[in-house]
Amino acid sequence: MRFVSTKGNAKPVLFKQAALNGLAPDGGLYIPGEWPTLSNDFWSNIQGKNLQEIGYSMCRPFIEELNEEVVHTIIKDGINFDAPLVALNENSYVLELFHGPTLAFKDFGARFMARTFSAFREDKGQDLIILAATSGDTGSAVAQGFLGVEGIKVCLLYPSGKVSHIQELQLTTAGQNVTALEVDGTFDDCQRMVKQAFSDDSLNEQLLLSSANSINIARLIPQMFYYTYALSQLAADKEPIFCVPSGNFGNLTAGLMAERLGMPAAGFVAATNANDVIPEYLQTGSFNPRESKQTISNAMDVGRPSNFERMHYLFDGDYKKMRSSIWGADFSDRKTKEAIKKVYEDYGYLMDPHTAIAFLAVEQYKKQAQGYFEEAPSAPFVILSTAHPAKFGDVIEPVINEEVEIPERLSRCLEKKKKSIGLENDYTVLKEWLLQNY
Fold this sequence. Notes:
The chain has 438 residues and is of the alpha/beta class. Helix content is 43%, strand content 14%. The chain has a domain at 82-103 and 217-406: Rossmann fold (3-Layer(aba) Sandwich), CATH 3.40.50.1100. A 6-stranded mixed sheet has the order 3-4-12-9-10-11, sandwiched between helices. Strands 8-5-6-7-13 form a 5-stranded parallel sheet. It starts with a strand and ends with a helix.
């Protein structure tokens, strides 16, 4: 199995090189060069399979360099938590992806990557530097996933004042081999500087860099697992519509990748906040990236979604093909708060702002776009819930007029002191810092 660049000007590589490089030499993103279809037997007998079984079967075709035992261990140790499917209302379900250590779906990718990188690491004399931009949950997941891993150091860039209080404490209090850089800018600025670092030949000659953002294909492969796991929890004859709260669009791209392996899906709904670049593209065929807007669903505050490049590649650059598989909608902070309140009052279920936006998209789809995918009327909706509501208590509590209970593993970080290093929004300053400290 070889991975190719979305830009098409780099030679195909095995998974190890694609994962450790992060970006392809031509600046493109790695994507599988072929799509092995899992057997009909696998899909027809998916009901009741556990998350680890599914994960191994889905990732094995992509990882040639590690033996069966090592891959099994990576899955068993890395994905050691559940992702239950909870019935919300008639024909709508919530796939809870926040049962990992940092209470966010990013735990799937970060823990898988940490164990994979550790297995791949051969040069014991040089540290591997994980350089990642975060709009919130990526930072804490990467920090915890790689915490204490020998020979690997983590450098997180996050936008000052644009992540929630708890998210900031999670990513700035890890310590050990994890450093947080607080950038005077937006997530898009952080992401731009990370990409510049990977494209800087002089920097890469001196440091061994890799990424844990969704620009890295190793993040997306484990995110395929839970889409299929949702199927295993549904009735056998149900082909769902997946509704995905989306910012950088790695999560939705992972669903498209799972579909390429044969996963049945009636379609995908891309749910965004005011940063509506992709819904706009789906409506007009024009891709217009721009500066991100700050919202209460901050993990989705992305104005230049990197994974559009992969999506564009998967659909052969054909707007009509993409539009036939994905429907998009965007919602304001006001609507988001209204949805949090409505779902809590009507169903007794508490959603974080990102999940609430996905719920809104499902409701709007039912009213305005039913039949868009030519699905059967009984097609269930699976809403991907990407974070525990306790991570956004400052937003949610005034909406429901109640305190949000904080899980113990989250409350522990509230007792710690934030440790971050301020950084100008300037790549040359970042480069200088990296060379001085690593």
